[in-house]
Amino acid sequence: MYVFAAAAVVILALAAILVVSSVRSAASPVQSLSEQVGTQVAQILHPTPTIRPDPVAIVREVRALARLETIQYTVERVIIAETGQGPFGFLFGDRLLLVAHGYVIAGVDLGRLLPSDIEFDDLGRIYVILPEAEVFVATLDNDKSYVFDRDTGLLTRGNLQLEAEARRAAEAAIRESALEDGILNQARVNAEGYLFGLFRTLGYADVVFSTATEARPAPTPTPLPLASPTP
After folding, report:
1. Are residues 96 and 201 in the same domain?
2. 121 and 78, same structural domain?
3. Contacts of 58 (CB under 8 A, 6+ apart)
4. 188 SS3 class
5. Which of 11, 12, 133, 141 is deepest in the core (most CB within 10 A)?
6. Residue with more model confidence, 132 or 28
């Protein structure tokens, strides 16, 4: 009797294991499908961002690289701006003193260089017509520029635009100071020195520079060897 009972228990246990295994096998495709659907829904609700380079930004970067910046000036100027002066200036006037600190960057825009601006001769020289040097940047350093003094009339709160106008005048004055000091000439000299070394490393024997307003030196032809007389 006990043997039959033990055998029955074993058979029931095996049957239970088979049922559980069958249920798990049947539920596995459903669970896998549920996970796939959940993944697709998550991709729709939270898509992975696609990042593409902006072609316009790339073109701008390439053009910026063509600007050969060869010199920077640091300039400091004192600017006085005032309004409402005169007999009633102590009532309605506004006056400020701005200590302006800025910088000017100049160089040569090689993006304006054309194929026709470069020639060679038979002696290994290269002739280059450089674009005119120009000012690329003339701006204030706001961290170092400051209003040293300001005096307003008794019956006015001051001109709200006076400081902004003083800063604009300061930028123009800084640019003018650099031009008067010969920044463009020095920018050209530095550009020629840089390009001379570059062309020499490329194997050219000599480099001759000129501008569009200067006469270009004529390339020197290589003289032909004299023919030996035939005996």
Report:
1. yes
2. yes
3. none
4. helix
5. 133
6. 132
